[in-house]
Write a structure and sequence with these properties.
CATH architecture of the largest domain: 3-Layer(aba) Sandwich
Strand order of the largest sheet: 16-15-14-17-18-20-19
Shape: globular
Distance between the termini: 88 Å
Number of strands: 20
């Protein structure tokens, strides 16, 4: 017998799940949790395809396996069996690109191309900043397929460069097992300076190598547009201002002045640069700009004598885990109460939350409750959720919510 004939073929990783998990997966949920697996034919390895069967031994779904994550399988496909080859991956890439084909014109060159589970690419995000692409991974399972995915992206999208970003929880695995680091160039030369892109004709910089998220908060685009439409003639406070996106839009909308409030000097410097990038727009050029470096919670609570016509609250996620929920709800209400104290008569409050563990209904209720507690009469005139390039298809994917109130 030849050595080749003695080589054993490793059987496909096969999983059977609980009845409850079957129901959930059939309904379209993209995660299979470890505790829902009732049978597994062998030990699985990171990134391999796991095939999930129902109680009748019929194909249910397949996805990327991670032996060390509570989310044991991130689903790629459910329904009838498929062959996962290069053609399948190419078709899978085309789907989110087609969804975005008519969302933006040449005045917007920064947006999300692939939104993770919601676009059939669980744990993977792809953002465009003009000719630069940023690939962010939230699971190490994709690292085993990085070369294959890179070839698909560069062939189809032909970027000038492609940057790899990694969530904090997978950075050590990426470095130790795959020799990949956050901010590494996967394709092309590193940018000599922050990448400049357009959003509705405004110019912004994105720190694609080290910035938060993939370099900019693209998901707030629609709310920035709303602020522009509301800001005319107003004094605007942009709390948790980060790189000043809301302030630039408010300035173009005719605000008399914008005040950026953030604890980070780096963020405030970036906000000043973004305003400088748009000085060719007369309204931006004529708008007064003030910078306050301070903890927003403390400043709002201690400087109630400062009044504004519009206050924007866009804090970072205050509930990153389920255990943080109670504290986050209290913090959001405290912020809203403080913001109302800073509003002049007829003022507008925009309050945002990007905490997935706080539902939109809970958030809207607590802001309305804070408005009632303020003793003044405010009316809600708009609420928003995620923009179309960040659309959510399952409950855990719904994180962004915003509520607009005006004194009646």
């Amino acid at each position: 017998m030849s050595p080749a004939s003695k080589t054993k073929t490793i059987p496909r990783l096969r999983l059977r799940v609980t009845a409850a998990a079957e129901t959930i997966l059939r309904a379209g949920h993209p995660w299979l949790f470890a505790e829902s697996i009732r049978d597994q034919n062998r030990k699985g390895s990171l990134g391999e395809l796991a095939v999930i069967y129902d109680r009748k031994n019929q194909f249910l779904a397949l996805g990327l396996f991670d032996p060390d994550s509570p989310i044991r399988v991130r689903l790629l496909h459910a329904g009838k069996p498929v062959i996962v080859d290069r053609g399948w991956w190419s078709a899978r890439l085309e789907q989110p690109l087609q969804r975005r084909q008519f969302l933006f014109d040449e005045q917007t060159t920064g947006y999300r191309l692939i939104h993770g589970e919601n676009d059939g690419w669980p744990g993977l995000v792809l953002d465009r900043y003009d000719s630069t692409l940023v690939l962010k991974l939230y699971t190490p399972a994709w690292l085993t397929r990085l070369e294959e995915i890179l070839a698909l992206l560069t062939e189809r999208l032909q970027p000038e460069r492609l940057v790899l970003r990694l969530s904090r929880n997978i950075q050590s695995v990426a470095l130790n097992q795959f020799q990949k680091a956050d901010g590494e160039m996967l394709y092309g030369a590193p940018p000599a300076q922050p990448v400049i892109f357009l959003e509705t004709g405004l110019r912004f910089e994105a720190d694609v190598l080290r910035g938060q998220k993939t370099g900019f908060f693209l998901d707030q685009r629609e709310n920035r547009r709303h602020v522009e439409a509301l800001a005319g003639g107003r004094e605007v406070l942009n709390a948790f201002s980060f790189s000043g996106g809301f302030s630039v839009y408010a300035a173009r909308g005719g605000a008399n002045g914008v005040t950026d409030l953030d604890i980070s000097s780096h963020a405030l410097t970036s906000a000043a640069r973004n305003l400088a990038l748009n000085q060719s727009t007369p309204a931006v050029r004529s708008c007064r700009h003030e910078v306050i470096q301070a903890d927003a919670f403390e400043w709002l609570g201690q400087n109630e004598q400062r009044k504004f016509d519009m206050v924007i609250l866009d804090p970072p996620a205050l509930a990153k885990r389920q255990a943080d929920r109670a504290g986050a709800l209290h913090a959001y209400q405290t912020l809203a109460l403080s913001a109302f104290e800073h509003l002049r008569s007829g003022g507008i409050l925009l309050a945002c939350s990007c905490s997935a563990h706080v539902t939109a209904e809970e958030f809207f209720h607590l802001v309305r409750d804070a408005a009632h507690t303020s003793g003044r009469r405010f009316e809600v005139f708009q609420t928003t959720r995620q923009p179309p390039d960040h659309a959510a298809t399952f409950a855990e994917g719904e994180y962004l919510k915003a509520i607009y109130l005006r004194e009646a």
